[in-house]
Write the structure tokens for this entry.
Amino acid sequence: MNPRQVWNLSVLAIFAALLASRLLLVTLNWTSLRLHPSWMLAIAMVHHPLLGTLDALAAVVAALLYGRWQRMLPWNTADVLAAPVALGMAFEQLGALLAGSGYGRETTVRWAVTYTHPLAALWSGAPLGIPLHPVQAYAALGFLALSIFLVVWLPRRRQTGDVAGFFLLGAGIVDFFTEIWRDPVGRGTWLSGALNGPQTAAVVLVVAGGLVLLQRPGVQARYGAANG
């Protein structure tokens, strides 16, 4: 892989995600932003459930367009980016923990987190003065462990795309189980309440990861010959 191409792809994807999220936030929170125009200069702003999905879609589209333009090998590119993306998701969850976004359910555990700042309630809807599961920290630890695993697995992959497949599989597992401790408000329901929206998306990620991990004899043969 050409490091310069990977770097440029990453920068373009990040800016695409920031631009998309800012446009969504400005559109959906125009009344609040008219009263507080300085909020538009902040990296973090009013939280919205669609924000993460739109960020991911914008980043993926930008990455695909740049990769196609530069004729980058798609599976190799995905493998190279898997661990950094998982690490970025860990840091994103730490930021959510500090901001009160995606907060957890009420709890009595000793490591509970209690939000007191009014902006946590205004921007993210976090309840103030109530001990909550630090579910964002749980997710951050899960994504950090996933990132370390992917770094270790990269030189051991059996075919191109394996690292990306494990990323999809692991991210889906982390998302699915951490939703157990996350407050369900605004997260939607599926199958008569058996799953919420993020858990449904997590199931899709796990299935997609499994499909990517299926052995592809032609790809495996070419990969083995290239490294032989």
About this structure: The CA atoms of residues 24 and 212 lie 32 Å apart. The chain has two domains: 1-72, 78-228.
